[in-house]
Amino acid sequence: MEPSHQARRRPGDAVDTDQLANELTERFRQVLSTKRMNELTSRSVQSRSSSPAPRDFGTPQPPAPALPPSYSSLRNIPLVPQAPQDARSLRFKNMLHSLSNMPMRWENPGLLDEALRVIPLEQIYNEAEEESQILQAEAESLGSGKKAAWGYQDCVVRALLRWFKRSFFTWVNNPPCSRCYSPTIGVGMAAPLPDEQARGANQVELYRCSVDQCGAFERYPRYNDAFVLLQTRRGRCGEWANCFSMLCRAVGSRVRWVWNSEDHVWTEVYSVHRKRWVHVDACEEAWDKPRLYTDGWGKKLSYCIAFSVDGAMDVTRRYVRDPAKHAIERNRAPEAVLLHIMDEIRAMRRSNMSKQDKFRLEGEDMRENRELRNQVISSIAHEVSKLSVDDILSGRSSRPPRPDPDTQKALESRTSGNSEWIRQRGEGGRGAPNQQHPRDPTR
Ligand SMILES: [Zn+2]
Question: Where are stretches of biased composition, namely Basic and acidic residues (predicted)?
Protein backbone atom coordinates (compact mmCIF):
# COMPACT_ATOMS: atom_id res chain seq x y z
CA MET A 1 0.00 0.00 0.00
CA GLU A 2 1.23 3.47 -0.79
CA PRO A 3 2.29 5.59 2.15
CA SER A 4 -0.27 8.24 1.30
CA HIS A 5 -3.02 5.67 1.71
CA GLN A 6 -1.69 4.57 5.05
CA ALA A 7 -1.52 8.12 6.25
CA ARG A 8 -5.08 8.66 5.19
CA ARG A 9 -6.32 5.55 6.93
CA ARG A 10 -4.79 6.06 10.39
CA PRO A 11 -7.53 5.40 12.95
CA GLY A 12 -8.99 8.59 14.31
CA ASP A 13 -8.01 10.57 11.25
CA ALA A 14 -10.70 12.14 9.18
CA VAL A 15 -11.28 9.74 6.31
CA ASP A 16 -11.29 11.14 2.83
CA THR A 17 -14.72 9.78 2.01
CA ASP A 18 -14.53 10.52 -1.70
CA GLN A 19 -11.27 8.66 -1.97
CA LEU A 20 -12.61 5.82 0.14
CA ALA A 21 -15.80 5.62 -1.89
CA ASN A 22 -13.79 5.57 -5.10
CA GLU A 23 -11.59 2.76 -3.83
CA LEU A 24 -14.55 0.75 -2.64
CA THR A 25 -16.33 1.34 -5.92
CA GLU A 26 -13.27 0.17 -7.80
CA ARG A 27 -13.02 -2.95 -5.67
CA PHE A 28 -16.70 -3.70 -6.02
CA ARG A 29 -16.47 -3.14 -9.75
CA GLN A 30 -13.63 -5.62 -9.94
CA VAL A 31 -15.65 -8.21 -8.02
CA LEU A 32 -18.54 -7.71 -10.41
CA SER A 33 -16.47 -7.66 -13.55
CA THR A 34 -14.51 -10.76 -12.54
CA LYS A 35 -17.79 -12.50 -11.98
CA ARG A 36 -19.16 -11.24 -15.26
CA MET A 37 -15.99 -12.23 -17.09
CA ASN A 38 -16.24 -15.73 -15.62
CA GLU A 39 -19.84 -16.01 -16.72
CA LEU A 40 -19.12 -14.74 -20.20
CA THR A 41 -16.06 -16.94 -20.57
CA SER A 42 -17.87 -20.06 -19.47
CA ARG A 43 -20.77 -19.17 -21.74
CA SER A 44 -18.55 -18.59 -24.75
CA VAL A 45 -16.63 -21.80 -24.01
CA GLN A 46 -19.91 -23.68 -23.91
CA SER A 47 -21.21 -22.20 -27.11
CA ARG A 48 -17.93 -22.83 -28.86
CA SER A 49 -17.78 -26.46 -27.84
CA SER A 50 -21.38 -27.10 -28.81
CA SER A 51 -21.28 -25.39 -32.20
CA PRO A 52 -17.82 -24.42 -33.36
CA ALA A 53 -17.67 -21.54 -35.78
CA PRO A 54 -16.49 -22.60 -39.26
CA ARG A 55 -13.35 -20.47 -39.11
CA ASP A 56 -12.51 -21.67 -35.63
CA PHE A 57 -9.96 -24.41 -36.36
CA GLY A 58 -9.47 -25.32 -32.76
CA THR A 59 -7.14 -22.39 -32.11
CA PRO A 60 -7.77 -21.00 -28.65
CA GLN A 61 -9.67 -17.73 -28.94
CA PRO A 62 -9.41 -14.90 -26.45
CA PRO A 63 -12.51 -14.62 -24.27
CA ALA A 64 -15.29 -12.51 -25.71
CA PRO A 65 -15.00 -8.89 -24.63
CA ALA A 66 -17.17 -8.16 -21.61
CA LEU A 67 -20.27 -6.32 -22.77
CA PRO A 68 -21.29 -3.37 -20.65
CA PRO A 69 -24.27 -4.32 -18.51
CA SER A 70 -27.48 -2.42 -19.10
CA TYR A 71 -27.37 -0.82 -15.67
CA SER A 72 -25.44 -0.46 -12.45
CA SER A 73 -21.73 -0.55 -12.01
CA LEU A 74 -20.59 0.81 -15.32
CA ARG A 75 -23.24 3.46 -15.73
CA ASN A 76 -20.79 6.17 -14.78
CA ILE A 77 -18.45 5.57 -17.66
CA PRO A 78 -18.86 8.58 -19.94
CA LEU A 79 -20.69 7.83 -23.15
CA VAL A 80 -20.69 9.83 -26.32
CA PRO A 81 -24.25 10.93 -27.14
CA GLN A 82 -25.57 9.27 -30.25
CA ALA A 83 -28.54 10.26 -32.41
CA PRO A 84 -31.37 7.71 -32.48
CA GLN A 85 -31.29 5.47 -35.56
CA ASP A 86 -33.63 2.53 -35.10
CA ALA A 87 -37.42 2.72 -34.92
CA ARG A 88 -37.54 1.83 -31.24
CA SER A 89 -35.16 4.63 -30.26
CA LEU A 90 -37.06 7.09 -32.43
CA ARG A 91 -40.30 6.15 -30.72
CA PHE A 92 -38.66 6.72 -27.33
CA LYS A 93 -37.36 10.07 -28.50
CA ASN A 94 -40.78 11.21 -29.69
CA MET A 95 -42.36 10.10 -26.45
CA LEU A 96 -39.82 11.94 -24.30
CA HIS A 97 -40.18 15.08 -26.38
CA SER A 98 -43.92 15.05 -25.93
CA LEU A 99 -43.66 14.32 -22.18
CA SER A 100 -41.23 17.21 -21.86
CA ASN A 101 -44.03 19.64 -22.73
CA MET A 102 -45.87 19.12 -19.46
CA PRO A 103 -44.04 21.81 -17.42
CA MET A 104 -44.34 24.26 -20.33
CA ARG A 105 -48.10 24.17 -19.96
CA TRP A 106 -47.89 25.72 -16.50
CA GLU A 107 -46.07 28.79 -17.79
CA ASN A 108 -49.08 31.04 -18.04
CA PRO A 109 -48.91 34.05 -15.69
CA GLY A 110 -52.66 34.68 -15.82
CA LEU A 111 -53.49 31.11 -14.90
CA LEU A 112 -50.79 30.95 -12.23
CA ASP A 113 -52.37 34.04 -10.63
CA GLU A 114 -55.69 32.26 -10.82
CA ALA A 115 -54.11 29.27 -9.08
CA LEU A 116 -52.87 31.52 -6.28
CA ARG A 117 -56.45 32.52 -5.56
CA VAL A 118 -57.29 28.88 -4.81
CA ILE A 119 -54.44 28.36 -2.34
CA PRO A 120 -54.99 29.57 1.28
CA LEU A 121 -51.82 31.63 1.06
CA GLU A 122 -51.95 33.12 4.53
CA GLN A 123 -52.22 29.74 6.17
CA ILE A 124 -49.41 28.31 4.00
CA TYR A 125 -47.06 31.24 4.66
CA ASN A 126 -47.76 31.20 8.40
CA GLU A 127 -47.03 27.49 8.63
CA ALA A 128 -43.88 27.92 6.56
CA GLU A 129 -42.70 30.80 8.71
CA GLU A 130 -43.23 28.79 11.87
CA GLU A 131 -41.54 25.68 10.58
CA SER A 132 -38.54 27.50 9.21
CA GLN A 133 -38.07 29.25 12.56
CA ILE A 134 -38.17 25.91 14.35
CA LEU A 135 -35.62 24.45 11.93
CA GLN A 136 -33.44 27.50 12.39
CA ALA A 137 -33.60 27.20 16.18
CA GLU A 138 -32.80 23.49 15.95
CA ALA A 139 -29.75 24.24 13.84
CA GLU A 140 -28.55 26.93 16.23
CA SER A 141 -28.91 24.61 19.20
CA LEU A 142 -26.56 22.20 17.44
CA GLY A 143 -23.79 24.76 17.46
CA SER A 144 -22.45 27.59 15.41
CA GLY A 145 -22.11 27.18 11.69
CA LYS A 146 -24.93 24.65 11.45
CA LYS A 147 -27.42 25.26 8.71
CA ALA A 148 -31.16 24.75 9.07
CA ALA A 149 -32.35 21.52 7.46
CA TRP A 150 -34.62 23.41 5.06
CA GLY A 151 -35.02 27.02 4.03
CA TYR A 152 -38.14 29.15 4.10
CA GLN A 153 -39.18 28.44 0.51
CA ASP A 154 -38.78 24.70 1.15
CA CYS A 155 -41.13 25.09 4.09
CA VAL A 156 -43.63 26.88 1.84
CA VAL A 157 -43.73 23.85 -0.46
CA ARG A 158 -43.94 21.51 2.53
CA ALA A 159 -46.97 23.42 3.84
CA LEU A 160 -48.49 23.42 0.36
CA LEU A 161 -47.98 19.67 0.20
CA ARG A 162 -49.79 19.10 3.52
CA TRP A 163 -52.71 21.28 2.50
CA PHE A 164 -52.93 19.74 -0.96
CA LYS A 165 -53.04 16.17 0.30
CA ARG A 166 -55.13 16.70 3.43
CA SER A 167 -57.77 19.17 2.33
CA PHE A 168 -57.67 19.91 -1.36
CA PHE A 169 -57.20 17.01 -3.73
CA THR A 170 -58.98 13.65 -3.65
CA TRP A 171 -57.80 10.29 -4.86
CA VAL A 172 -60.42 8.69 -7.08
CA ASN A 173 -60.27 5.19 -8.50
CA ASN A 174 -63.92 4.77 -9.45
CA PRO A 175 -65.97 7.95 -9.22
CA PRO A 176 -69.03 7.54 -6.96
CA CYS A 177 -72.49 7.66 -8.54
CA SER A 178 -73.54 11.31 -8.60
CA ARG A 179 -77.23 10.37 -8.34
CA CYS A 180 -77.14 8.13 -5.26
CA TYR A 181 -73.48 8.34 -4.10
CA SER A 182 -73.08 4.55 -4.34
CA PRO A 183 -69.90 2.89 -5.59
CA THR A 184 -69.62 2.32 -9.33
CA ILE A 185 -68.18 -0.36 -11.58
CA GLY A 186 -65.96 0.34 -14.57
CA VAL A 187 -67.53 -0.47 -17.94
CA GLY A 188 -64.88 0.83 -20.34
CA MET A 189 -64.04 4.00 -22.19
CA ALA A 190 -66.34 6.61 -23.70
CA ALA A 191 -65.75 9.19 -26.38
CA PRO A 192 -65.15 12.62 -24.85
CA LEU A 193 -68.03 15.09 -25.08
CA PRO A 194 -67.26 18.44 -26.72
CA ASP A 195 -67.02 20.28 -23.39
CA GLU A 196 -64.81 17.56 -21.90
CA GLN A 197 -62.58 17.75 -24.92
CA ALA A 198 -62.53 21.53 -24.76
CA ARG A 199 -61.21 21.24 -21.22
CA GLY A 200 -58.44 18.90 -22.32
CA ALA A 201 -59.78 15.43 -21.56
CA ASN A 202 -58.83 13.08 -24.36
CA GLN A 203 -59.86 10.01 -22.41
CA VAL A 204 -63.09 9.43 -20.56
CA GLU A 205 -63.62 6.37 -18.39
CA LEU A 206 -67.17 5.15 -18.00
CA TYR A 207 -68.63 3.71 -14.80
CA ARG A 208 -72.04 2.32 -13.90
CA CYS A 209 -73.75 2.60 -10.53
CA SER A 210 -73.55 -0.66 -8.59
CA VAL A 211 -77.13 -0.23 -7.32
CA ASP A 212 -79.44 -2.01 -9.79
CA GLN A 213 -82.44 0.31 -9.28
CA CYS A 214 -80.22 3.29 -10.03
CA GLY A 215 -77.89 2.03 -12.76
CA ALA A 216 -76.81 5.55 -13.65
CA PHE A 217 -73.68 6.04 -15.72
CA GLU A 218 -70.87 8.13 -14.39
CA ARG A 219 -68.22 9.70 -16.58
CA TYR A 220 -64.64 10.12 -15.40
CA PRO A 221 -62.86 12.45 -17.82
CA ARG A 222 -59.11 12.26 -17.28
CA TYR A 223 -58.24 15.94 -17.39
CA ASN A 224 -54.74 16.73 -18.37
CA ASP A 225 -54.89 20.46 -17.74
CA ALA A 226 -53.62 21.51 -14.33
CA PHE A 227 -55.91 24.55 -14.29
CA VAL A 228 -59.01 22.44 -14.96
CA LEU A 229 -57.86 20.18 -12.14
CA LEU A 230 -58.10 23.16 -9.76
CA GLN A 231 -61.86 22.79 -10.23
CA THR A 232 -62.27 19.03 -10.45
CA ARG A 233 -59.78 18.46 -7.58
CA ARG A 234 -59.64 14.74 -8.07
CA GLY A 235 -57.76 12.04 -9.93
CA ARG A 236 -55.06 9.44 -9.75
CA CYS A 237 -51.33 10.03 -9.59
CA GLY A 238 -51.22 11.75 -12.99
CA GLU A 239 -53.73 14.42 -11.97
CA TRP A 240 -52.13 14.76 -8.54
CA ALA A 241 -48.62 15.33 -9.86
CA ASN A 242 -49.79 17.64 -12.63
CA CYS A 243 -51.88 19.93 -10.42
CA PHE A 244 -49.50 19.92 -7.45
CA SER A 245 -46.43 20.66 -9.58
CA MET A 246 -48.24 23.58 -11.17
CA LEU A 247 -49.10 24.95 -7.71
CA CYS A 248 -45.44 24.70 -6.66
CA ARG A 249 -44.66 26.78 -9.71
CA ALA A 250 -47.40 29.23 -8.71
CA VAL A 251 -45.82 29.82 -5.29
CA GLY A 252 -42.55 30.62 -7.05
CA SER A 253 -40.54 27.41 -6.87
CA ARG A 254 -38.61 25.90 -9.71
CA VAL A 255 -40.31 22.65 -10.45
CA ARG A 256 -39.85 19.43 -12.36
CA TRP A 257 -42.32 16.83 -13.45
CA VAL A 258 -40.80 13.37 -13.14
CA TRP A 259 -42.01 10.62 -15.42
CA ASN A 260 -41.35 7.02 -14.48
CA SER A 261 -41.68 4.28 -17.06
CA GLU A 262 -43.29 1.95 -14.52
CA ASP A 263 -46.44 4.04 -14.51
CA HIS A 264 -45.96 6.73 -11.91
CA VAL A 265 -45.28 10.46 -11.94
CA TRP A 266 -44.20 12.84 -9.23
CA THR A 267 -42.65 16.24 -8.59
CA GLU A 268 -39.21 17.60 -7.87
CA VAL A 269 -38.72 21.05 -6.43
CA TYR A 270 -35.45 22.95 -6.44
CA SER A 271 -34.24 23.82 -2.96
CA VAL A 272 -32.20 27.00 -3.16
CA HIS A 273 -31.25 26.40 0.47
CA ARG A 274 -29.81 22.94 -0.20
CA LYS A 275 -28.77 23.69 -3.81
CA ARG A 276 -30.34 20.51 -5.10
CA TRP A 277 -33.56 19.04 -6.46
CA VAL A 278 -35.85 17.51 -3.85
CA HIS A 279 -38.24 14.63 -4.44
CA VAL A 280 -41.89 15.47 -3.65
CA ASP A 281 -44.80 13.06 -4.12
CA ALA A 282 -48.14 14.76 -3.52
CA CYS A 283 -50.17 11.51 -3.45
CA GLU A 284 -48.00 10.30 -0.61
CA GLU A 285 -47.34 13.63 1.08
CA ALA A 286 -43.72 12.55 0.72
CA TRP A 287 -40.94 15.10 0.93
CA ASP A 288 -37.39 14.11 0.05
CA LYS A 289 -38.00 10.37 0.22
CA PRO A 290 -36.51 9.20 -3.08
CA ARG A 291 -36.29 5.61 -1.87
CA LEU A 292 -40.03 5.45 -1.31
CA TYR A 293 -40.74 3.53 -4.53
CA THR A 294 -37.99 0.96 -4.21
CA ASP A 295 -37.41 0.33 -0.51
CA GLY A 296 -40.90 1.49 0.44
CA TRP A 297 -43.11 -0.05 -2.24
CA GLY A 298 -40.69 -2.72 -3.41
CA LYS A 299 -40.93 -1.53 -7.02
CA LYS A 300 -38.27 -1.99 -9.65
CA LEU A 301 -37.67 1.02 -11.88
CA SER A 302 -36.02 1.42 -15.24
CA TYR A 303 -36.38 5.09 -16.23
CA CYS A 304 -37.12 8.19 -14.15
CA ILE A 305 -36.83 11.30 -16.32
CA ALA A 306 -37.30 14.81 -14.97
CA PHE A 307 -38.59 17.64 -17.16
CA SER A 308 -38.63 21.33 -16.38
CA VAL A 309 -39.00 24.57 -18.32
CA ASP A 310 -35.24 24.82 -18.60
CA GLY A 311 -34.05 21.27 -18.95
CA ALA A 312 -34.39 17.52 -18.81
CA MET A 313 -32.42 15.05 -16.76
CA ASP A 314 -32.26 11.30 -16.32
CA VAL A 315 -32.67 11.16 -12.54
CA THR A 316 -33.07 7.37 -12.23
CA ARG A 317 -30.02 7.13 -9.98
CA ARG A 318 -31.75 9.32 -7.40
CA TYR A 319 -34.57 6.78 -7.10
CA VAL A 320 -32.70 3.53 -7.70
CA ARG A 321 -29.90 3.51 -5.16
CA ASP A 322 -29.31 -0.20 -5.30
CA PRO A 323 -29.31 -1.19 -8.97
CA ALA A 324 -28.72 -4.86 -8.20
CA LYS A 325 -31.99 -4.94 -6.28
CA HIS A 326 -34.23 -2.33 -7.85
CA ALA A 327 -33.17 -1.62 -11.43
CA ILE A 328 -34.83 -3.22 -14.43
CA GLU A 329 -33.24 -3.40 -17.80
CA ARG A 330 -33.34 -0.15 -19.75
CA ASN A 331 -34.10 -1.31 -23.24
CA ARG A 332 -36.04 1.51 -24.87
CA ALA A 333 -32.91 2.93 -26.41
CA PRO A 334 -29.15 2.59 -26.05
CA GLU A 335 -27.82 4.73 -23.18
CA ALA A 336 -25.84 6.92 -25.59
CA VAL A 337 -29.08 7.66 -27.43
CA LEU A 338 -30.88 8.62 -24.23
CA LEU A 339 -28.04 11.07 -23.50
CA HIS A 340 -28.52 12.54 -26.96
CA ILE A 341 -32.27 12.95 -26.41
CA MET A 342 -31.69 14.66 -23.06
CA ASP A 343 -29.16 17.03 -24.69
CA GLU A 344 -31.63 17.75 -27.45
CA ILE A 345 -34.48 18.65 -25.08
CA ARG A 346 -32.16 20.77 -22.93
CA ALA A 347 -30.88 22.64 -25.98
CA MET A 348 -34.42 23.28 -27.15
CA ARG A 349 -35.53 24.63 -23.77
CA ARG A 350 -32.49 26.86 -23.51
CA SER A 351 -32.32 28.10 -27.07
CA ASN A 352 -33.60 31.58 -26.23
CA MET A 353 -31.58 32.03 -23.07
CA SER A 354 -28.65 34.34 -22.47
CA LYS A 355 -25.16 32.91 -22.38
CA GLN A 356 -24.98 33.47 -18.63
CA ASP A 357 -28.18 31.58 -17.97
CA LYS A 358 -27.06 28.67 -20.13
CA PHE A 359 -23.74 28.62 -18.31
CA ARG A 360 -25.43 28.64 -14.91
CA LEU A 361 -27.74 25.78 -15.88
CA GLU A 362 -24.86 23.76 -17.28
CA GLY A 363 -23.06 24.18 -13.96
CA GLU A 364 -26.18 23.00 -12.21
CA ASP A 365 -26.41 19.94 -14.48
CA MET A 366 -22.81 19.08 -13.69
CA ARG A 367 -23.38 19.42 -9.96
CA GLU A 368 -26.42 17.21 -10.17
CA ASN A 369 -24.57 14.60 -12.19
CA ARG A 370 -21.92 14.56 -9.50
CA GLU A 371 -24.60 14.25 -6.82
CA LEU A 372 -26.25 11.31 -8.63
CA ARG A 373 -22.90 9.64 -9.20
CA ASN A 374 -22.00 9.98 -5.53
CA GLN A 375 -25.31 8.45 -4.53
CA VAL A 376 -24.56 5.38 -6.58
CA ILE A 377 -21.01 5.29 -5.22
CA SER A 378 -22.14 5.55 -1.63
CA SER A 379 -24.72 2.81 -2.08
CA ILE A 380 -22.10 0.62 -3.74
CA ALA A 381 -19.78 1.43 -0.84
CA HIS A 382 -22.59 0.43 1.47
CA GLU A 383 -22.93 -2.87 -0.38
CA VAL A 384 -19.20 -3.43 -0.19
CA SER A 385 -19.24 -2.77 3.54
CA LYS A 386 -21.53 -5.78 3.82
CA LEU A 387 -19.03 -8.04 2.05
CA SER A 388 -16.38 -9.90 3.98
CA VAL A 389 -12.81 -10.12 2.73
CA ASP A 390 -13.51 -13.72 1.72
CA ASP A 391 -16.51 -12.62 -0.29
CA ILE A 392 -14.45 -10.03 -2.10
CA LEU A 393 -11.70 -12.53 -2.84
CA SER A 394 -14.15 -15.13 -4.07
CA GLY A 395 -16.46 -12.65 -5.83
CA ARG A 396 -19.54 -13.45 -3.80
CA SER A 397 -21.98 -11.27 -1.98
CA SER A 398 -23.91 -13.37 0.47
CA ARG A 399 -24.38 -11.34 3.60
CA PRO A 400 -27.91 -10.55 4.70
CA PRO A 401 -28.59 -6.85 4.15
CA ARG A 402 -28.09 -4.50 7.02
CA PRO A 403 -30.78 -1.84 7.45
CA ASP A 404 -29.63 1.60 6.46
CA PRO A 405 -31.17 4.88 7.61
CA ASP A 406 -32.79 5.80 4.31
CA THR A 407 -34.44 2.41 4.01
CA GLN A 408 -35.76 2.77 7.51
CA LYS A 409 -37.14 6.19 6.68
CA ALA A 410 -38.87 4.89 3.59
CA LEU A 411 -40.32 1.97 5.50
CA GLU A 412 -41.56 4.22 8.26
CA SER A 413 -43.32 6.44 5.80
CA ARG A 414 -44.96 3.37 4.37
CA THR A 415 -46.42 2.33 7.71
CA SER A 416 -47.55 5.79 8.79
CA GLY A 417 -50.43 7.80 7.37
CA ASN A 418 -49.78 6.59 3.85
CA SER A 419 -50.43 2.93 4.46
CA GLU A 420 -54.11 3.73 4.23
CA TRP A 421 -53.59 5.17 0.79
CA ILE A 422 -51.44 2.30 -0.41
CA ARG A 423 -54.05 -0.14 0.84
CA GLN A 424 -56.80 1.73 -0.97
CA ARG A 425 -54.74 2.04 -4.04
CA GLY A 426 -54.41 -1.73 -4.26
CA GLU A 427 -51.97 -3.55 -6.49
CA GLY A 428 -52.63 -1.90 -9.81
CA GLY A 429 -54.25 1.22 -8.46
CA ARG A 430 -57.66 -0.05 -9.53
CA GLY A 431 -60.60 -1.81 -7.98
CA ALA A 432 -60.14 -0.20 -4.59
CA PRO A 433 -63.04 1.44 -2.75
CA ASN A 434 -63.92 5.02 -3.46
CA GLN A 435 -62.42 7.73 -1.43
CA GLN A 436 -64.76 10.67 -1.21
CA HIS A 437 -64.08 14.23 -0.44
CA PRO A 438 -65.23 14.74 3.14
CA ARG A 439 -66.88 18.06 2.44
CA ASP A 440 -68.41 17.32 -0.88
CA PRO A 441 -70.00 13.93 -1.46
CA THR A 442 -70.70 14.65 -5.12
CA ARG A 443 -67.01 14.50 -5.98
ZN1 LIG B 1 -76.51 5.42 -8.29
Answer: 401-412
